Every structure is written in structure tokens, then in C-alpha cells.
From TrEMBL:
Family: Belongs to the small heat shock protein (HSP20) family.
Species of the source: Desulfofundulus thermobenzoicus
Domain SHSP: 49-157
Name the record gives this protein: Hsp20 family protein
Organism classification: Bacteria, Bacillati, Bacillota, Clostridia, Eubacteriales
CDD domains: ACD_sHsps-like
Pfam families recorded: HSP20
Length: 157
């Protein structure tokens, strides 16, 4: 019996997807789709192709006067993270170092390397009144709502 050819070349798609994320950030699929079902479908598709999910994982909460952003960054030092507010976006860049550099890897699930992620906020923020700190592996960022403001780099306490 003849073997069926796949509908598409998985390796080529992975290369294309990696290049797209390089230019558009880790949340590439989220920038294309607004619908949560479409996002979930694309996350499932990405998992099938062996692609990593967006890193770091982020939750955004809001009140009438501020936003709370929680980021999973266990083992990451504040010196290895750069936060910047640009309009109504929070940009996160950083590095997760391998704690066992030089060791042979037997099994690995945790992400190491450089990362970049942009979080779209529902409104502009006052970057002069923010707070950012690490608590139990979570980076907690408090950003008060504000009118339109210029870009600013944030320090982590």
C-alpha cells in the first residue's frame, strides 16, 4: 500500500513560524486572531508542531483605576528582565539562564534562553506611579490607568 504524503511540510512550517515569532514576538498567533476560540485552535496547532507556548505566561487583572500584571518567571533575576511601557502595551524582554550549564540534559521541559513578549493593555497607564516586584517566582506589576503617555522603561524593586 502506498504511503500518503502529508498535506504540508511540517519542518518548513516550523521554520516559517519561528521566523514569524522572531519578527512579531512570542505571541505571534495572538496578534493575528482576536477570537479566543481561534487563539485556542492555533495554540493546539502549535503544540502539534512542537512549538513552545508564549513565555512567560501572563495574567492581566484590572480595576476601575489600575491593572495588575502577573508573570511566571521562576528562577529569573530582576537584573535579567527589562520592562517597558509603550502607550497601552507592556513589553517584556529577558533571559532565563540554564542553572546547570555544562551538564548533559536527560529530560528538559523548562524554557531557557532569551524571550520577548508584548502584552496589550486595555488602556494607557501612568508609568510614573507603577510598582514591579518578584514574589514567589511571579513578577507582580501594578500599573495605574492614565491618559496617553510617552514610552518609559520600568525598574523592578
Amino acid at each position: 500500500m502506498r504511503r500518503m504524503r502529508p498535506m504540508f511540510d511540517q519542518e518548513k512550517f516550523q521554520r516559517w513560524s519561528k521566523m514569524a515569532r522572531k519578527f512579531h514576538g512570542q505571541d505571534f498567533w495572538s496578534s493575528i486572531f482576536n477570537n479566543s476560540q481561534a487563539k485556542e485552535m492555533m495554540n493546539s496547532f502549535s503544540e502539534l508542531l512542537g512549538e513552545e507556548k508564549s513565555f512567560p505566561r501572563v495574567d492581566v487583572y484590572q480595576t476601575s483605576h489600575e491593572f495588575y500584571v502577573l508573570m511566571e518567571l521562576p528562577g529569573v533575576r530582576k537584573e535579567d528582565v527589562l520592562l517597558q511601557v509603550v502607550g497601552d502595551r507592556l513589553e517584556i524582554k529577558g533571559t532565563v539562564h540554564n542553572p546547570y550549564h555544562g551538564y548533559q540534559v536527560h529530560f528538559k521541559e523548562r524554557f531557557t534562553g532569551t524571550f520577548q513578549r508584548t502584552v496589550q493593555l486595555p488602556d494607557y497607564v501612568d508609568h510614573n506611579q507603577y510598582s514591579a516586584k518578584f514574589v514567589n517566582g511571579l513578577l507582580e506589576i501594578r500599573l495605574p490607568r492614565a491618559g496617553e503617555t510617552p514610552a518609559k522603561t520600568l525598574n523592578i524593586d
